[in-house]
Amino acid sequence: MGALQLEARAPAASRAAGRREPALTALIYLALIIGGMTMIVPFLFMVSTSLKPPQQVLAIPPQWIPSPVRWQNYADALYVLRPRTFLNSILFAASVVFGQGLVATLGAYGFTRLRFPGRDQLFLAYLATMMIPSQVTLIPVYLVVVTLNWHDTYAGLIVPILASGAFGTFLFRQFFKQIPDELADAAVIDGANHLTIYSRIVLPLSKPALTAYGVITLLAAWNMFVWPLIVIRSPDLWVLTLALSQLSSQLTNDFHILMAAVTLSMTPLLILYLFSQRYFVQGVTMSGLKG
Amino acid sequence: MATLPATATRTGRRRARRSEWPWVLLFLGPNLFLFLTFTAFPVFYGFFLSFQKWNVIEPMQFVGLANYQRFFFEDKLTGKVVVTTLYYAVAAMPAQIALALLFAILLNQGISLLGLWRGVFYLPMVTSAVAIGLIWKWLYAKQFGAFNALTGLAGIPRQDWLFDERLVIPAIVLTAIWTALPLKIIFFLAALQSVPPELYEAASIDGANRWSKFWHVTWPLISPTTFFLCIIGIIGLLVGGFDLIWTMTKGGPLDASTTIVIHIFRNAFVYYDMGYASAMAYMLFLVILALTVIQWRLQKRWVHYS
């Protein structure tokens, strides 16, 4: 909705600016092409490298078109990355998205629709911790995980990240507050309990926020590096970022395979992005600080 | 638990307060448990650790302010790390803001195929810093990298960008700017699109040219966004950047790209010097807190709201 409105407005703005000289239009497109190329060329070079035969990777000057195209690089990359790493990344991202979403929305419902002494003070404490960058608590959180004997386990990888939902709790509380009380009150008269109101009224009405939050959390989880790097030792538990980082030191002379692995690692999100760019943009705008 | 909603219905929400406790537990329990264990407790535990000497294996030992003293007076790397961090942040921030604003303005000119352009400009946003780091490491490779081929066209001799003490930070800064552009373009674009077109029309009637329209209409109205992006940009550069730098150089060569986060990480998870690393993490936190407070204070004075 917002995007449509804005796109409709943009021509109006340029109309207001008067008719644009052709030279200026050309300049605008030229600048955009240079900028766009700068953004996309590194990715093109990655894909190009990922399809080259080994001897061509080391050509001087670098060549753009792989000849012959070597698809085998992708099979090799999948072999060194291991399919299991993909499954780990999917498991991790899915757990974080659904776990954080559940914890955050339940908590936000509690903060908006339940009454108990100290509620607002508790919420203030949440707000206060949101300013603290996760890098600051990294060490103590790791030590908590060690104390729980959770290091190098899925639990250690996933559960502490679910706690990052303080931000989500805040976000959904803002959103839930806009839902008129009358809706829930009517449901109470019909005999609905809080769980019903949460799942049948509040959540369905929050679909836009849920989608945007889901997308941005997925993005963060899929691309997360420092936490897996600290907690995980066994290659069996590696996620993609960690595997790429570890393998890069082994593949120093096999850039074609490394680039194929990088391409593979980013493909799932890239496909998702191409089909739902709007939600990515909404999610990013909504959660500016998390970016 | 099944009887509780019935009570709530009968007596109304306000009077049912006591009977709501099981619901409070259900809705806030998991959230609160996670918050206390992995957010609230670590904040205090980290502070406590900053006064200890501890390598995780041997018993903890209280050392007072020794860790802080070590940072300011004994650690030979401190000066270098602080300078590198500031160099990195100060070099990247203005360029990030300026380029993002430039491209946001260009994207806002009623151009055709806007969706496609945005798709291209936002691409680094969906890519992990590790992937970006590896791609750029390959671009910067001395013999076979594309970057040297490009600079070679301008007559610049081949450089070993990531292995040269003088060049490593500029090289990483370039990558960091490139990485951060999408997020900042998105925010600037949203700000630009929220400027009411009537204002431009009014300015046109007054005979304003493009430049004065930008300077007197657009710039004041987007200043809250600019300011916000400057602050989150500088915070992001101070505490962020770990993934990228660790992937590209691991802080080298000869600590030339060791920023404060790399230094903290190395002390904590390579040397297992938890007390010292915690002390540095806490000081970093105080710096960020100060920046946030400055943001709040200055925002009132400096920024125009329509």
In a few lines, what is going on in this structure?
The complex is a heterodimer of chains A (291) and B (306). With 291 residues, chain A is mostly helical.
Describe the structure using short key phrases.
heterodimer; A: 291 residues; mainly alpha; MetI-like fold; disordered N terminus; B: 306 residues; 13 helices
Question: How would you characterize the overall build of this protein?
Answer:
The complex is a heterodimer of chains A (291) and B (306). Chain A is mainly alpha-helical. Chain A folds into 2 domains: 2-76, no CATH class; 82-248, MetI-like (MetI-like fold, Orthogonal Bundle). Chain A is built from 16 helices and no strands. Chain A has helices at residues 2-16, 22-50, 54-57, 72-81, 83-113, 119-130, 134-147, 154-162, 166-177, 181-189, 194-205, 207-223, 226-231, 240-248, 255-275, 277-286. Chain B is 72% helix and 1% strand. With 306 residues, chain B is an all-alpha fold. The relative contact order of chain B is 0.12. Chain B has 2 domains: 3-49, no CATH class; 76-302, Orthogonal Bundle (MetI-like fold), CATH 1.10.3720.10. Mean pLDDT of chain B is 86; it is low at 1-16. Chain B has helices spanning 3-15, 21-49, 66-74, 78-107, 114-121, 129-139, 146-153, 168-193, 197-205, 210-239, 242-248, 260-269, 274-302, and strands at residues 52-53, 61-62. The radius of gyration of chain B is 25 Å and the shape is globular. At the A-B interface, helix 1, helix 2, helix 5, helix 6 and helix 7 of A face helix 1, helix 2, helix 4, helix 5 and helix 6 of B.
